[in-house]
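Whether sequence alone determines local backbone shape is best considered at the level of individual chains. In the encoding step, the backbone of a single protein was reduced to a row of integers, each denoting a local shape. For completeness, the protein is quoted in full, as a sequence line and a line of structure tokens.
***
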Amino acid sequence: RKFQEQVIRLSRIVDNILDESKISEGRMTLQVEDVDLSEMVTEVLDRFKITAKSHGVEIQFTSTPNIKGVWDRYRIEQVLINLLINGIRYGNRKPIQVEVNKHENHAQLVVRDQGIGIKEEDHQRVFDRFERAISENEVSGMGLG
């Protein structure tokens, strides 16, 4: 199990570095397809059940069914996975709430944890590449998630 987690972690790091390179060179392309957002999120959450449970974290999910659109499935999954991992790591073992809603002509994916949060003065900076809200001595990762 530990080996599999490390392989997944290294794969995510490589993917993030490649994405950063593509973005900085203006070569990032989206692979859009017809996606049911509710179904896709359900699939990702099913894959995370064991990990969340092993860390003592409950993931609560509510969704409006049949939210269909043309999106890059991989990129949405990537964002959701990063948010779930952060919620598991820094959420103080409290529940993570995931919601998928439809509002008129757009969809909304919401992920809430009850963790340490990000200080207001770090809100802008933390979205820069290789930045973190807290020091690298306190967390692992490259600041690309």
